[in-house]
Design goal:
The complex is a heterodimer of chains A (322) and B (327). With 322 residues, chain A is an all-alpha fold. Chain A is 72% helix and 0% strand. The two termini of chain A are 15 Å apart. In chain B, a hairpin with a 2-residue loop joins strand 1 (3-14) and strand 2 (17-29). Classes of the chains: A mainly alpha (322), B alpha/beta (327).
Chain lengths: 322, 327
C-alpha cells in the first residue's frame, strides 16, 4: 500500500518541519495534483472501514455464513426440507434416520429434519425482532437519559430497576399464559418489555462515559448542536457496547423463546419451534435422542453464531484495534 | 475591544462545599493581540476560558456574577442558540490534549469538514476539499493523502496542528488556546507555538494563551495576566513583567524557572500548596506562601493597584516588590 507508506514516512519526518513540508508538496505533486483532490472526495466513514475489516475476519465470515443460511432457510424452508412439518406418521414414531428423513423421526412420527428446518423461521424472527425492538427502545431511552441527565435520568433509572426486578421466566409464565394468540408477536412483545432496561442501562452508561471526553466538549466549543453532538460524536463512540450486548442478547432471546415454548407458554403446537420440539422430545430422550439433539444442536449453533458475530462487529467498530 | 471579561465569578457546588473557582477576574484582549493567562493548576484559568466559550458544565458550575463582553455584547445574556452560532465562527478553542479532543471514530477530514457543514452548510465533498486546504495551512505534510486518516494515526504535534486547523477553520476573531503545548515535547512545542503566532498575525485574531509555562509565554505574548486562586494578581505587558514583577507571586514563578546561568544551584520552589478552592484563605489568598506577607495581608483583600497605565497588581506592597529587583 504505497499510500499508507507515504503517510507513515511523513509522520516520521516530524522533527524537521520545513523539510517535511516541502517534501510533502512534492509527494502530493507526485501523486498527481488535481487527481489527489478527487481521491479525497471519496467518503470513508467508520462504518465503511469497519466493513472492510469485517470482510477479512474469519470469525465474522463463518458466523455470517451460518446466519445467512439460517435466514435463507427461514424464508424458503421448503427448498431444502421435504414435506410439511405438520404431516406426521405415528407408525414411524421414534424411528432412526431413513430416506427423506436424515435426522430420523420424533415421538409423533414427524420428520425431525423438516421440523428443525421449519423451526429456524420462528427462532430467527423472534431473535431479530426482539433484538431490534429492545435495541431501539433501550438505546434511545438510555442515550437521552445519559445525555440530558437530571429528572429524565432519575425517572428512567428507577423504571429500569422495576423491570429488572421481574424474573424473566416467572414473568413469562404469568404474562404469556393469558395470551391466546399463537403467533410469535406476544413472545416478542414480552421480550422487548423485559429486555429494554438492560440495553438502556448500557446505552446510558456508555453515553455518560463518552460525554466526558474532551472531543465532545471540543465539538460544543466549535458550535455543534445537541443533536449533532449526540448523533455524530457520542453515538458512534457509544454504540459498540450496545451492539455487542444486543447481538449476545439476540442469542439469549432465541434461547428464551425455546425456554418459554418448552414451558408451554411461548408458542404452542401446531406452531413449529425448536423449543416445542425439545420439550416434546425430552420425555423419551433415552429411546430417541436424535429427536432432542438435532433441534437442540441447531439452537446452540444459532446462538453461538450470533454471539460470534457480535464479537467480530465490536472489534471492527474500534478503530484503535486497527 | 474584542473581548472584555469584567469581574467574573464562577463557583462549583460540590459535596465538599462551594468551590470558588473564579473570584472577580477581569481581562481584555484586542484583535491581533496575544494575552497569556498564567497560573498553577486550579487557579481558575481554564474555568474562565470555559465560561467565555460557554462550555462550562452547569451544573455543577455556576456563573454568579460579572460580564463577558464579546465585541461589546454581553454573551452571558445571549440565548443558547445565539451563543452556539458564535462558537466556531466568532470564537474557538484549542484544547490541551489533541488526542482526546479529536473524535477517535471520525477521520480528521470529516472532523475538519464538519465545521463547514455545520456553520456554512457546505456539501460533504466541498467540506472535504476545504479540510485539505486547512491541513496544508497548518503545514501537515501530504495533507491530501492524510485527510482520511484517523487521529490516532498522527503524531502528537500533527494532532495539535489539526486541532489548530479546526479552531481556525471559520477564521474566528478570538482563539482561546488552553495549554496547547503541554502534551508535546519541547521541539514540537516551539513549532506549534510558532505556527500559532504566525496564524494569529496573518488573520489578526485575538489569542488567549492559557499556560503554566513561563518559557512559552515570553516569545509570543503581548500581555500577561497571572492568576492565583481565581483572581488575577498581576497583569502587565510581557516585557515589564519579566523585567520587574509587581507581585510576589509573579516573582516566585519567575524565580522557579531553571536558568542556565544558575547551573548547579538549587532551584527555587514556592513553599506550600495552592489553596483549596473550598477554603480560600481570608485576606490575600497568597499570604500563607508569600515571602513578603505581613499582618494586613491576613485580613485585607488587596485591591488591584494601578502600577502604570497598562499594568495592575493585587498586592498591598507592590511598590516594595517592584523595587526589590535582585532579592
Amino acid at each position: 500500500m504505497p499510500e499508507q507508506d507515504g503517510a507513515i514516512a511523513a509522520t516520521g519526518m516530524g522533527g524537521a518541519m520545513d523539510l517535511a513540508a516541502s517534501e510533502a508538496t512534492t509527494l502530493e505533486r507526485a501523486s498527481g495534483g488535481p487527481g489527489g483532490a478527487t481521491d479525497t472526495g471519496r467518503p470513508r466513514s467508520l462504518w465503511s472501514d469497519a466493513w472492510r475489516d469485517l470482510r477479512r475476519n474469519p470469525v465474522f465470515l463463518v458466523s455470517a455464513l451460518v446466519i445467512l443460511f439460517l435466514v435463507l432457510i427461514s424464508l424458503w424452508p421448503s427448498a431444502i426440507a421435504p414435506g410439511s412439518p405438520l404431516s406426521c406418521d405415528l407408525a414411524k414414531a421414534q424411528d432412526g434416520p431413513g430416506p427423506g428423513a436424515p435426522f430420523g423421526y420424533d415421538g409423533q412420527g414427524c420428520n425431525v429434519y423438516t421440523r428443525t428446518v421449519y423451526g429456524a423461521r420462528t427462532s430467527v424472527t423472534v431473535g431479530v425482532c426482539a433484538t431490534l425492538g429492545v435495541a431501539l427502545l433501550g438505546s434511545v431511552l438510555g442515550a437521552l437519559a445519559g445525555f440530558f441527565g437530571g429528572v429524565w435520568d432519575s425517572v428512567l433509572s428507577r423504571g429500569t430497576d422495576i423491570f429488572f426486578a421481574i424474573p424473566v421466566v416467572l414473568g413469562g409464565l404469568v404474562l404469556l399464559s393469558v395470551v391466546t394468540s399463537n403467533t410469535v408477536w406476544p413472545v416478542i412483545g414480552f421480550m422487548v418489555l423485559l429486555g429494554w432496561p438492560q440495553i438502556s442501562r448500557i446505552a446510558r452508561g456508555s453515553v455518560i462515559t463518552v460525554q466526558q471526553n474532551d472531543y465532545v466538549q471540543a465539538a460544543r466549543a466549535l458550535g455543534a448542536s445537541h443533536s449533532r453532538i449526540l448523533l455524530r460524536h457520542i453515538a458512534p463512540n457509544a454504540v459498540a457496547p450496545v451492539i455487542v450486548v444486543a447481538t449476545i442478547a439476540l442469542g439469549t432471546y432465541i434461547a428464551l423463546e425455546a425456554t418459554l415454548s418448552y414451558l408451554g407458554v411461548g408458542l404452542k403446537p401446531p406452531s413449529v419451534s425448536w423449543g416445542i420440539d425439545i420439550s416434546a422430545a425430552s420425555p423419551y430422550v433415552r429411546n430417541a435422542p436424535h429427536a432432542l439433539l438435532w433441534p437442540a444442536g441447531a439452537l446452540a449453533v444459532t446462538v453461538l453464531a450470533f454471539i460470534m458475530l457480535g464479537d467480530a462487529v465490536r472489534d471492527a467498530l474500534d478503530p484503535k484495534l486497527r | 475591544m474584542l473581548l472584555e471579561v469584567r469581574d467574573l465569578h464562577v463557583e462549583f457546588r460540590t459535596r465538599e462545599g462551594v468551590a470558588k473557582a473564579v473570584n472577580g477576574v477581569s481581562y481584555a484582549v484586542d484583535a491581533g493581540e496575544t494575552l497569556a493567562v498564567l497560573g498553577e493548576s486550579g487557579s481558575g484559568k481554564s474555568v474562565t476560558a470555559q465560561a467565555v466559550m460557554g462550555i462550562l458544565d452547569m451544573p455543577p458550575g455556576r456563573i454568579t456574577g460579572g460580564e463577558i463582553l464579546f465585541r461589546g455584547q454581553d454573551v452571558l445574556r445571549l440565548k443558547e442558540e445565539e451563543r452556539r452560532g458564535l462558537r466556531g465562527t466568532g470564537m474557538a478553542m484549542i484544547f490541551q490534549d489533541a488526542l482526546s479532543a479529536l473524535n477517535p471514530v471520525l477521520c480528521v477530514g470529516d472532523q475538519l469538514g464538519e465545521m463547514f457543514v455545520v456553520h456554512r452548510g457546505m456539501s460533504k465533498k466541498d467540506a472535504r476539499a476545504r479540510a485539505v486546504e486547512l491541513m496544508d495551512r497548518v503545514r501537515i505534510p501530504a495533507a491530501a493523502q492524510r485527510v482520511r486518516d484517523y487521529p490516532h494515526q498522527f503524531s502528537g504535534g500533527m494532532r495539535q496542528r489539526i486541532m489548530i486547523a479546526m479552531a481556525l477553520a471559520l477564521e474566528p476573531a478570538l482563539i482561546i488556546a488552553d495549554e496547547p503545548t503541554t502534551a508535546l515535547d519541547v521541539t514540537v512545542q516551539a513549532q506549534v507555538m510558532e505556527l500559532l503566532a504566525e496564524l494569529r498575525r496573518e488573520y489578526r485574531m485575538g489569542l488567549i494563551l492559557i499556560t503554566h509555562d513561563l518559557g512559552v509565554v515570553a516569545d509570543v505574548a503581548d500581555r500577561i495576566a497571572v492568576m492565583y486562586a481565581g483572581r488575577i494578581v498581576e497583569s502587565a505587558p510581557v516585557y515589564d513583567i519579566y523585567k520587574a514583577p509587581a507581585h510576589p507571586y509573579t516573582r516566585c514563578l519567575l524565580d522557579s524557572i531553571p536558568r542556565l546561568d544558575l547551573k548547579g544551584r538549587e532551584l527555587y520552589a514556592i513553599k506550600g500548596l495552592p489553596p483549596s478552592l473550598t477554603h480560600i484563605p481570608p485576606g490575600c489568598a497568597f499570604h500563607p506562601r508569600c515571602p513578603m506577607a505581613r499582618d494586613v495581608c491576613r485580613t485585607d483583600v488587596p485591591p488591584v493597584h494601578p502600577v502604570s497605565e497598562e499594568r495592575g497588581s493585587a498586592c498591598h506592597f507592590w511598590r516594595e516588590c517592584l523595587d526589590d529587583r535582585d532579592h
